[in-house]
Every structure is written in structure tokens, then in C-alpha cells.
Amino acid sequence: MRLAIFSDIHGKILLPFKLADLYQQQTGRKIDFILQCGDIGAYPSMDNLDKATLKHAKQDRDELGFHDDFTHINPVIQTYLNKLNIDMICVRGNHEDHDYLDQLEKENGQLSRFPIDVYKRVFVCRSGVRQELRKDDEVLHLVGIGRIGDQKGRTDKRFIQEYEKKEIRKLLKTNQHFDILITHDKDDSNERGYGMAAIREVLDNVIFRYHFYGHTGEPFKQETDYNGITQSVKISELEYSHSGILPEGSMIILEKKGENDFQLEVVSQQFTNQLTRFNWKD
Questions:
Q1: Residue pLDDT, tens place only, 106-139
Q2: How many CA atoms lie within 13 A of 265 on its CB side?
Q3: pLDDT in tens, 163-184
Q4: 33 DSSP β-pair partners
Q5: Phi–psi pair at 36, nearest 5 degrees
Q6: Is residue 52 situated within a structural domain?
Q7: Residue span of the structural domain in which 45 resides
Q8: Tens digit of each residue's pLDDT (9 = 90 or more) over 205-231
Q9: Residues in domain Calcineurin-like phosphoesterase (predicted)?
Q10: For residue 44, is it within any domain?
Q11: Which whole-number Å values give the CA distances from 204 to 117, 169, 209, 240, in the listed order?
């Protein structure tokens, strides 16, 4: 099973699909799923944009890609996604329409993840709930934790909610090992004064092979977590520079070759530079 992993797409919903498609074409290696570490930019209504998204959308219409292309059927996009046949599985970030996502989560309360777009290709994980990805006879186990943490007692919907913390407490009691943890925020074990305490608690009590996250604005890095087991990977935000190219470490490939055999590839900028700010929508 092979995964393409991204973070912080901010409305550029089609871009991960196009990068995965290009990777398949040029390497001959099939992508089975896309994972996305939050800040999807899931705003179906422009009336509910947060201040940061509204500001950026004035300069870059790509911020509104969910509204423009994923809330009503575009036959060209539908045909493309059906042919590609890859689902993108996400966690919430802090730049989403959480009222919209809350309603969908409520309507799909029996599902561990739920579709948020008109094509049913973009899914959001319920935080702290065990997930399975299946491809033929292969199974990959993962957990997603969305939103961000807060150290100032704020409770608006950007921040992890009490019902999600309850699910995480259930997770802490499990003896199951997992392949992947995807989060938007990082854990709170650094001295910079931000992060999510629940992520640290999960990493200290549940065994994961990999933890992928975004959000922080830090460059790509891969290191062993404080728990001495998990490989922690900060994915660069899928944001174009002023020169129109994507940063190093903005596309990761993880391949599960066997029960205990994984291979991680940091896709080169030589590859991602083929899709620039100026041509990726062509």
C-alpha cells in the first residue's frame, strides 16, 4: 500500500490529487490513498470565511478552491477524480468552516470518517477514532487528531473540543499498535509555548510507527519522537513561494511493503517544481 501525504493545502483541494497523478505517471507506482494533515480550507460558503482566509483569498483565489470546485458538480473535475480513483483522508485544521464540518460529523455519527465534498473523494477523520485503510488484502491502521491546542483556555471551534478529548481518552486505554498518527498541530513538548497536550499524551501512551503533522510554519524535518519509537515528520505546508514553487518536504510518500516493512520517500523539489503556481490548474 502506498500513501501520498500533504499538509496545509488551504483550498488547493485538487493539487494533492494532481501531484499524486503525476507521481503515478512518472514512476509507474500506484498511489492508493492521500493523507492530508489539516487546513483543508473547507469553506463551502464565503460568508463563513475566517479573517486569515478572507485576507489571503483577496490575493489568491486558490484559497476558495473548496467553495469553487468541490461544493457543486463540475463534470471535468468529476471525470478526472473518478478516473484517478483515489480518496483523500484529512484531519481538521484551524482554518475550516467548523460549523459545516460539525453538521456533517453529526449526520455521519456511526462512521470513523465522513465525506465533505460533492464528489465524495475528500474525507475527514473523527478525532481520536481508529481508522482502517484497506487495499486488497493489505490493511493500514491510523488515527487522526484535528484542530489545534490552546494554552489560554479558549474554546472556540479552532481548538480541540471536549467530545474529541473524550474519544482520545478511550484511545489511551487501547493496547492496539498503529501505523500512523496524522495531526494538524504538533505536541506541546517544546519551549515555544504552543502545541496540543492531547497529542503528547497519545504519543506517550500509544505506539505509532509514524506521526505526520503540519501547521507550525517550520520547514520539513524528520526525527525520532521523545518516546523513542515513533518517527515524527513535520510536512512543509503545500504553499507556493513568491517564485511560484513548492517547498522541500511538501510531498511525502509512505509505502507499506509488509507487516513491519515501511519505506518513506521525501519527494524531491525537482519533481514538485513541475506543478508551479502558474500551471498547476492547467
A1: 999 889 999 999 999 999 999 999 999 999 889 9
A2: 15
A3: 999 999 999 998 889 999 999 9
A4: 3, 87
A5: -140, 130
A6: yes
A7: 2-272
A8: 999 999 999 999 999 999 999 999 999
A9: 1-217
A10: yes
A11: 34, 13, 13, 34
